[in-house]
Each structure stands twice: as C-alpha cells, then as structure tokens.
Design goal:
Blueprint (H helix, E strand, L loop, with lengths): L4 E3 L2 E3 L1 H10 L14 E3 L10 H10 L5 E3 L5 E3 L2 H10 L16
Antiparallel strand pairs: 1-2, 3-5, 4-5
C-alpha cells in the first residue's frame, strides 16, 4: 500500500513532506487538514504480530487510506479513511468536527 504525501494539494516525496512539516513547527495538536497523514501510536495501534491481519481487514473493507506500520502504529492519510477506520472498529470520537465520524 502506498501513502501519498501532499502539501497544498501537490503530491510530494516523504522527505520533502517531512522537511517542510519540521520547518512549520511540526504536526498540529488538532485533527486538521495540515496534519495528514496522521500516525496513531497509541489509540489505534495493534501488536506488531497483528499488522498483516489488520491491513487485510482494511483491504477487505475497501479502506485504502489506512495501514498499520511494522511497529503496529496506524497511519491514516485522510479524513475519509479516518472515518472508515473508526466505523470498522466501532470507535467513537467525542471531539469530532464537521465531516468527522462521532459514532452512533
């Protein structure tokens, strides 16, 4: 699965994305469009032995914007994928904003 890195709608390399993000002060503490791709090292993390299983579940459900990294951290590339992952695991976001899944 390939992750697309974008700055102002333009696809860039991971190296350029990381360099420009570091210059801007890093990732904001809120879920904004400038924070993509998001990495969840705690909340959506899985055990490293489960990475293939979780990625297979995402593929089976047609979730293309999310994957688990070899260390178990979850990387999500866009708000739509985030919503799909939350639905897949029946999770709820109490701080969801406009267009974000807040659960049932």
């Amino acid at each position: 699965m390939k992750v697309a890195y974008r700055i102002n709608g333009k696809t860039v390399s991971r190296k350029e994305f990381t360099r420009k993000r570091a210059k801007s002060g890093g990732v904001p503490m809120v879920g904004s469009a400038s924070a993509w791709p998001m990495k969840s090292d705690i909340a959506l993390r899985c055990h490293p032995d489960q990475v293939q299983e979780f990625n297979a579940i995402y593929a089976q459900r047609g979730i293309t914007g999310a994957r688990h990294l070899p260390n178990g951290a979850c990387e999500i590339t866009c708000n739509n994928a985030r919503n799909q992952v939350l639905r897949a695991w029946q999770l709820k976001d109490n701080d969801a904003g406009y267009g974000q899944y807040a659960g049932k």
